[in-house]
Amino acid sequence: MTQSYSVAVIGLGSMGMGAALSCINAGLTTYGVDLNPVALEQLNKAGAAATGTDAKAYAADVDAVMLLVVNAKQVNTILFDLGLAAALKPGTAVMVSATISADDAKAIETKLNEHQLLMLDAPVSGGAAKAAAGEMTIMASGSEQAFAKLQPVLDATSAKTYNIGTEIGLGATVKIIHQLLAGVHIAAGAEAMAMAAKAGIPLDTMYDVVTNAAGNSWMFENRMKHVVNGDYTPTSMVDIFVKDMGLVADTAKSLNFPSPLASTAYNMYLNASNAGYGHQADAAVIKTFSGITLPGDEA
Amino acid sequence: MTQSYSVAVIGLGSMGMGAALSCINAGLTTYGVDLNPVALEQLNKAGAAATGTDAKAYAADVDAVMLLVVNAKQVNTILFDLGLAAALKPGTAVMVSATISADDAKAIETKLNEHQLLMLDAPVSGGAAKAAAGEMTIMASGSEQAFAKLQPVLDATSAKTYNIGTEIGLGATVKIIHQLLAGVHIAAGAEAMAMAAKAGIPLDTMYDVVTNAAGNSWMFENRMKHVVNGDYTPTSMVDIFVKDMGLVADTAKSLNFPSPLASTAYNMYLNASNAGYGHQADAAVIKTFSGITLPGDEA
């Protein structure tokens, strides 16, 4: 099945690069699209069929497109403003894996349908390491045909694909609720580590205790390592959670539903971004707590 | 070493029972104390040297006492009001494993010292299953002598003992900061699952997605199972987190430090308790979200 299957992966950031490499590893004919020449070069060396800055160049050749860009605006720009949707063969499957609102997902579906294209509303999770290993978690909704057409891509990139239902928007909502947890967990980790610093607890000890006890979370273990090491080089940055917690807030409003913890965490990320930490690792939300000395701070 | 080593475990709830069973399994001469005759009978059958409602009966025989009661008030009542401390041999080690404030821990130390008793400030984590397996996580502070005297008990009951330092109160503070995370994670899980219910996401699917993705936490995985199953039989109840998040608030105030997420979660538990869910499983904090139908609700 995979012999003649071609996919274009658009957006070669930490998740997209991993997904594209996984497609190559699975034997799919893989095209890579990004504006960053370093990423294109990396994918070329790994065995991409071709790479470039304009996805339309590969539109006639592909069975599927996987979009791993940052937000709905980028999805719309690539598909509609730059004309990719119009250039794709009818029946091509478009897997939208950016974290976007359910409303945006539905609007994109409507426009893709006008071009006889299949859509899978398919956000992802797992981090860069899992993406590179072909072990992302995919939370997807869409038609049976969309799932079927994308099966080789889902097999190549994910350890587990959840079929949430046929309605476009359900995948987006599950991802946003997932991000509520991810965002609260990072902010809670920062709050806890900041309080430990204030109390004179060695942060490496606090980290070890939590990661071996019931207070642990995936995000605490992954992100508070930045705090212990005093290294805020981003794999995912504060401004990503400003965006994602903003989507949580939009979703909560649209559902007319309270989100006390997510709202609080959103304010913490906003404050961190406004303090100048937007482009640092998301764990830098801890830097908004004053009156403490953290690893890496000037003595 | 363990042949002639005797320990009294006081408080045979879910953690204390597990710890006492682990002491028996490790070959320690183990006395069990509780007010609940069912727990005493269970420990007797498992091979306790003796069980009863008054710890003083075993005071002359034990090398160590492990207190796994609910709060500082109970610790003080047992040790000082009921006269256990006065009855223990000088040099006996008292391991205080209740979740209490650093100030309470220091006050207990002062009074134990008057009786020439060693204190280990040693809260625990891990849940009932880990306690029964002798695999609790212990976060301890105290003198070298206290650690040494309690080594057989620490070996019997824990997979990992952290030595936070010599100062009594550090163990208590680490546990309280750990509970900040545990309490926020349960409340965040409830907020996320409630929002999923409102959005029409099947909760078993939402649970599966999160537990296989980066939004997972130990508490989400353990406690949101109650929500999916519609079963709020408590292993740990809402009122425990009313108490523990109250300790977080006290600690934050004493450190003059903000705790935006912990404060929000504390209010959620208070509200749940006042709504009548105090003695249900802590996941019942989700029941304070209105306008949704949860598994187990009347159709």
UniProtKB/TrEMBL annotation, chains A, B:
<keyword id="KW-0119">Carbohydrate metabolism</keyword>
<keyword id="KW-0521">NADP</keyword>
<dbReference type="Pfam" id="PF03446">
    <property type="entry name" value="NAD_binding_2"/>
</dbReference>
<dbReference type="GO" id="GO:0051287">
    <property type="term" value="F:NAD binding"/>
</dbReference>
<dbReference type="GO" id="GO:0016054">
    <property type="term" value="P:organic acid catabolic process"/>
</dbReference>
<dbReference type="InterPro" id="IPR002204">
    <property type="entry name" value="3-OH-isobutyrate_DH-rel_CS"/>
</dbReference>
<feature type="domain" description="3-hydroxyisobutyrate dehydrogenase-like NAD-binding">
    <location>
        <begin position="169"/>
        <end position="288"/>
    </location>
</feature>
<dbReference type="InterPro" id="IPR050006">
    <property type="entry name" value="LtnD"/>
</dbReference>
<comment type="function">
    <text>Catalyzes oxidation of L-threonate to 2-oxo-tetronate. Can use either NAD(+) or NADP(+) as cosubstrate, with a preference for NAD(+).</text>
</comment>
<dbReference type="InterPro" id="IPR036291">
    <property type="entry name" value="NAD(P)-bd_dom_sf"/>
</dbReference>
<feature type="active site">
    <location>
        <position position="175"/>
    </location>
</feature>
<dbReference type="InterPro" id="IPR006115">
    <property type="entry name" value="6PGDH_NADP-bd"/>
</dbReference>
<dbReference type="Pfam" id="PF14833">
    <property type="entry name" value="NAD_binding_11"/>
</dbReference>
<dbReference type="InterPro" id="IPR015815">
    <property type="entry name" value="HIBADH-related"/>
</dbReference>
<dbReference type="InterPro" id="IPR008927">
    <property type="entry name" value="6-PGluconate_DH-like_C_sf"/>
</dbReference>
<feature type="domain" description="6-phosphogluconate dehydrogenase NADP-binding">
    <location>
        <begin position="7"/>
        <end position="165"/>
    </location>
</feature>
<protein>
    <recommendedName>
        <fullName>L-threonate dehydrogenase</fullName>
        <ecNumber>1.1.1.411</ecNumber>
    </recommendedName>
</protein>
<dbReference type="GO" id="GO:0050661">
    <property type="term" value="F:NADP binding"/>
</dbReference>
<dbReference type="InterPro" id="IPR029154">
    <property type="entry name" value="HIBADH-like_NADP-bd"/>
</dbReference>
<dbReference type="GO" id="GO:0016616">
    <property type="term" value="F:oxidoreductase activity, acting on the CH-OH group of donors, NAD or NADP as acceptor"/>
</dbReference>
<dbReference type="InterPro" id="IPR013328">
    <property type="entry name" value="6PGD_dom2"/>
</dbReference>
<comment type="similarity">
    <text>Belongs to the HIBADH-related family. L-threonate dehydrogenase subfamily.</text>
</comment>
<keyword id="KW-0520">NAD</keyword>
<keyword id="KW-0560">Oxidoreductase</keyword>
